[in-house]
Amino acid sequence: MTDNSKPETRIMADLADMSPAYFGMVMATGIVSLASYLLDYPRIAHALFGFNIAAYAILWVLTVLRAVRFPRRFFGDMVDHLRGPGFFTTVAATNILGSQFVVLAADYRTGSILWGVAILLWIALTYTIFTGITIKEHKPTLDRGISGGWLLAVVASQSIAVLGALLAAHVDQPYRLEINFLALSMWLWGGMLYIWMMSLIFYRYTLFPFSPGDLSPPYWINMGAMAISTLAGSLLIINAPDAPYLLSLLPFIKGFTVFYWATGTWWIPMLLILGFWRYVSRRFPLTYDPLYWGAVFPLGMYAASTRRMIDAMEFGFLQFLPRVFLYIAMFMWAITLIGLVFDLLQRVGILGKEKARA
To answer: Which domain CATH number covers 26?
Structure first.
């Protein structure tokens, strides 16, 4: 029988159980960094940029090590209805880090390489995950098989549109036209995918029993998916003068960008009310979970996307919103990081004993 009291054994057990959605930390850190830069906090932006490069590298090492040491668990997670969508955080994290290289460092070569890697990851994961969960013999019921985490597939698609639009502004023709066209296509596909998935998620919300444990942090992606769609649409509007077909579609792009922003904004009070119900009314324990990074990301994305929408569409009356949400996102990022540090210290036995059994 394995002795789980040994540090090496505990570390391997933690690696085997590592959440595929852990790249959400890179997503959250990256977007808070970008929002900080857009709102004139360059020192914070660059500090988080350095942190994010290190976090991205460490997470890839751990991910590869998990795939090598525990291949059945790793690939089994890909076709799991609840854990599988978490792999899409690798796509979004790669694109957001690439966006940091473009915006903060003007490093278009690295940004382009990361964009290419993200596209390959998106193709591989999209057709592996959705084919796998389609053809698997035993499937969960709707209320046990779907969560807000499914919308990470939307975030991944829209992140390709975001980085593509950023790169398109710095390349020569004819590639500028081609990259903008790909960004437009991914933006439209992401919107369609959101409609499909959100219909199922809302159906599950309203017509199945709902307990505090069901309201996992990825439900904030309901809002975050719309926020990143707003960001991608705003960047396409900014790029329109350099792409004739974007210019001809400008009223459509503007209309859908506002549509995405309004939908994301509608979710904020709803999620806050449900959060109050979960943690205050029903007293659900608030302990660190890597999925909480998926709740930080939408807050930072809402700040960044609203800032870009103001630039693209001259909505000056919304100027107060990005800064408010940036401060909230910074606070939540710091709290989640503290939770991660304490969790790691407990796991290696430096800070008290391991978490008590539930």
So the answer is: 1.50.10.150
